[in-house]
Design a protein that fits this description.
It contains 12 helices and 13 strands. The chain has a 6-stranded mixed beta sheet with strand order 6-5-4-3-12-13. The chain has a 5-stranded mixed beta sheet with strand order 7-8-9-11-10. The chain has a two-stranded antiparallel ribbon with strand order 1-2. Helix 5 runs parallel beside helix 9 and helix 7 packs parallel to helix 8.
Length: 382
């Protein structure tokens, strides 16, 4: 429904504020009025003839959307003489510009973070040709599960204790390899904003506590995991992949941890926003993808096309995915696609629809020339 014309004194106040502050953005901040509301007032002032120069401040065209938004359409109120009296501009936030703004905000925030001190390596003679891969996937930090409904409890405190303790067990049992990869394969966070819902489908989620507390637990779990690996491995590479539950969370985690470990030359954080990434260990190629964008059977062709040079250099190739919470492996000529289970419990949705996968955490050891040489699992005691 079209909004009624505003009183002339409000339109004049709008004109005076823009004139005094020099821009629409500055004026709306000074008056503490939402940008869209104030911009529509400015358009009414321009259409009413109170301020022709508003046209230029609005971007040179009456239907030009504000920075960071895209035009969806316009509605114009025309009188009996065919003269436009009011116009409403329908806008939608541009996803790319919002992501860019979000990235810039995270980077600015991280400039204030003090890098962490180095961690001492406790292993004296790690095997130079070996790499240990530890995969955390679909941990859903922030999920709430009730044992009466789903068979097991899960909340922030259980998630933190379960993830750190079981990863520590797995690291202790692994060979003394020179290289370690912490493969955080996506859906690390259960939800991605102040509202507990999936970002794309907007499904309401069972959530434990506030988003800020979820962030605090997630950061502590990753920090402790990296430090445990630094005690075991000479070099630690960290993958922070996007999942369907946390595409934005993966962004700020990558930026934050790049700054946190900026002074530790034994740690590298993969900053790539590509949902498909790799690591080449000698002639052994490891690929990583959450599993929400491509089916397992398609992944060899996706990786071979995206990473042709590295694909050609490898004699053993392993692609790691999560997403579906259970173990599955596809072996085809020259490549294995490995789907990892989760350490998290099932939620009410999974219990209701019979998704009853076994909980476990997996470590795989790779040789530079021989490929996979060892595989360990831990099953949670909690």
């Amino acid at each position: 429904m079209a909004q009624a014309a505003l009183p002339k004194e409000i339109l004049q106040q709008t004109v005076d504020a823009i004139t005094a502050h020099g821009s629409i953005a500055a004026a709306c901040r000074a008056l503490d009025i939402p940008y869209t509301t104030f911009r529509n007032r400015a358009r009414q002032a321009q259409l009413s003839g109170l301020m022709p120069q508003v046209q230029a401040l609005l971007g040179g065209a009456s239907n030009s959307p504000p920075e960071g938004y895209k035009l969806k359409g316009t509605s114009t109120l025309v009188d009996a003489d065919g003269v436009a009296r009011l116009q409403w501009v329908k806008t939608d936030a541009s996803l790319e510009k919002l992501r860019a703004a979000q990235q810039a905000a995270f980077e600015a925030m991280c400039e204030e973070l003090k890098p962490l001190p180095p961690v001492k390596l406790l292993v004296t003679k790690p095997e130079r040709d070996l790499l240990n891969l530890f995969t955390l996937t679909d941990t859903h930090i922030g999920m709430l599960a009730w044992d009466k409904e789903s068979g097991e409890d899960w909340n922030l405190s259980i998630a933190e204790r379960c993830l750190v303790e079981n990863l520590a067990r797995l690291i202790a049992a692994a060979p003394d390899a020179e290289v370690g990869i912490l493969n955080q394969l996506g859906d690390f966070l259960h939800f991605d904003s102040l509202t507990p819902m999936t970002p794309t489908s907007k499904h309401i989620l069972d959530a434990d506590s506030r988003y800020q507390k979820v962030v605090q637990v997630a950061v502590r779990v990753l920090r402790r995991s990296i430090d445990l690996m630094l005690e075991k491995h000479k070099t630690v590479h960290v993958k922070i992949m996007e999942g369907n539950h946390d595409p934005a969370g993966s962004v700020w985690l990558r930026v934050m941890f790049t700054h946190l470990y900026a002074d530790n030359k034994r740690v590298t954080i993969d900053e790539s926003p590509n949902p498909y990434t790799i690591y080449l260990h000698g002639s052994t190629l490891l690929g990583f993808h959450h599993g929400h964008l491509s089916r397992m059977i398609k992944l060899p062709s996706v990786f071979s096309q995206q990473f042709r040079k590295e694909w050609g250099q490898s004699t053993h190739t392993y692609i790691h995915v999560g997403h579906l919470h259970h173990t599955h492996e596809i072996e085809s000529p020259g490549v294995n696609v490995i789907q990892h289970p989760t350490l998290a419990t099932k939620d009410a949705y999974a219990a209701r629809y019979g998704f009853l996968s076994k909980r476990q955490l997996t470590a795989m050891t790779y040789d530079k020339t021989a490929g996979e040489v060892k595989r360990n699992i831990v099953v949670p005691r909690l």
